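Researcher: Here's the sequence for the chain we discussed earlier.
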Amino acid sequence: MKIFSILLALCTGAVLAAPVLPTLPTIPSRILDAAILGVKADSSTDNAAVLQKALDSVATLGGGTLRIPAAKNPYLTGPIVLKSSTRLQVDSGAVLQMLPYGRYPMKSNSSYLPMISASGAYDIALTGKGRSRATVRPGGRRTRRARSPDRPCFP
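Model: Thanks. This is the structure I predict for it:
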């Protein structure tokens, strides 16, 4: 009986369609190096303005990759916004770290902006084998999403 049901399904075209995979972003091959553009991995400089200017430049040029190279110390940053046709690539050995607690900017309603965001953008990507790190609260402990869901977090 099972064989008959399978044959009937095949003959009538009642087979399940293959899943449709999402299309990958189309990003030009242009690469800009963040270190050359003035981003500093010194564990103290707020690189948000320089990173944002670099991301805006990549988008203005028609898209491409902003590469965060490996460094001994983390790159500190506040919120940055990706634009269309851009990739943020954090290389192995690089750490993109949120500004410390108290220096990270807040919205007017006392909540925090996300560290990396995009609005109305298309063809964007976050790539690389580098890491991101959440901010550290006073006392030296890392924040945890479960304890404070309004804190920005980049897994």
